[in-house]
Amino acid sequence: MRIDFPNGFIWGTSTAAAQVETAGPHNWRGQKALDGAVFDRTTDHELRRNTDAALIAQFGSLYRCGIDWSRIQPVPQGKFVPEVVAEYQLFFEDLRNRGVSIMLVLHHFAHPEWFEKMGAWTNEDNIPFYLEYVRLCVKHFGEYVHFWNTFNEPNVYAMNAFLLGNFPPAKKARYFLANRVLDNMGEAHDIAFRMIREKSDAPIGISLNTALFEGRGILGKLVAAFVGWWFMRRAARPFERCDFWGLSYYAYMIFDPFPVDAMQGRRKLDQWNIPYDKMWGYRPEGLGKVLRSFYKKYQKPVFITENGICTDDPQKRIQAIKDYLSVCANAIKNGVPLLGYIHWSTWDNFEWHLGPSYRFGLLRVNFDTMEREQTPAATFYATITRENGFDL
Ligand code: BGC
Question: What is the CATH number of the domain that holds 319?
């Protein structure tokens, strides 16, 4: 069976600056990950921009990425460092010459240490510092940008940094603080939206993480319902001023009533016969549910800004791409205005608090030599992006 996508459907891949570049002075630098790696040297992308651009260009016409804010603006509200501006401009220019435009993510979990020290998103007074950074990004890079993401997954950031303690500043169970962080990011988004709109016609949105939450037992169902509401409704509310909803999807999360993931709860998932990748339960149909519910509520175009699977096995990655894209094609058939699909990730990178051994890359990275290797999954996805469809 052939799965085809509409004309003009946009294909791409994504990375995040902090996960692929050697760490500038940002809030993640020096953090020790679960697999023992230290957040510093990641994949040497800043030294391999030209060869990386050639690899990126095989995966469609859009590349979603970010800037290392800590490297480009080492002092609060200071001028951008000219050499760093030139480095990114040259890279974007190179991509443009290869037919690739940019979805620019302005905040992806990492920010300068100076911003962290002043309380980052916990303090409303810090919003102007972000806005000045955004203003300069629009000025220097606006011409390359076809889509804007003011924030990547504010819900994942607030949850991991203020509820679960996984991301810096590693606070736990600070529910009201997590909500304040969401609201401050939302306010920053709102102002940034208007600022960007004055200078750029490119659509503006965020990327919100979504998942399928299900409970086992009465208590599990209650917890799943509450977490689902907080994660996808409460967290979305401050960002409703947007041209499109950027959504990412990876996980099927079961509550029994505690969350069961594939890192700690493998035995239970096996018992329940639920497939999983290295991190979470696997249920691609959940993406269809999310797409329908977002479109129903907001009546705005949607964009899959991230989707992928944590595995070392390219054959599993190919299967996941097929599964997820079948769900996307079905949603389009049922009337969801899905603008495009961006696969996470272009190449293996530093998976935040877990470390580089948690692989998502279409291209495999040898972390000793930093060589990128084409995998069957990379070739498979590249072909889909060229043919605008695939044989199931
Ligand atoms: C994040 C990425 C991350 C991916 C896989 C997303 O939530 O935006 O930075 O690597 O999930 O966990």
Answer: 3.20.20.80
Q: pLDDT tens digit string along 159-218?
A: 999 999 999 999 999 999 999 999 999 999 999 999 999 999 999 999 999 999 999 999
Whole-number Å distance, alpha carbon 179 to ligand 1 midpoint, is 21
Question: Count of domains in the chain?
Answer: 1
Pocket test for ligand 1, best of 352, 353, 354 (most atoms within 8 A of CB): 352
Is residue 116 a contact partner of residue 168, using CB atoms and an 8 Å limit? yes
| Banded pLDDT at 5 (limits 50, 70, 90) | very high
The pLDDT score that the predictor gives to residue 255 is: 98
Domain that residue 167 falls in: 2-391
Decide the pairing of beta strands 259-260 and 245-255. antiparallel
The residue whose CA is least distant from atom 3 of ligand 1 is: 351
Which atom of ligand 1 is closest in space to residue 344's alpha carbon?
4
Q: Check residue 238 and give its pLDDT.
A: 98
Distance 376 CA to ligand 1 centre (A): 22
CA 177, 182, 183, 188 torsion: positive or negative?
positive
Q: For ligand 1, is residue 306 a contact (CB within 6 Å)?
A: yes
248 lines ligand 1 (CB under 6 A): yes
CA 3, CA 325: separation in Å to the nearest integer?
A: 8
The residue to which tokens 């997820």 are assigned? 324
pTM for the predicted model, two decimal places: 0.98
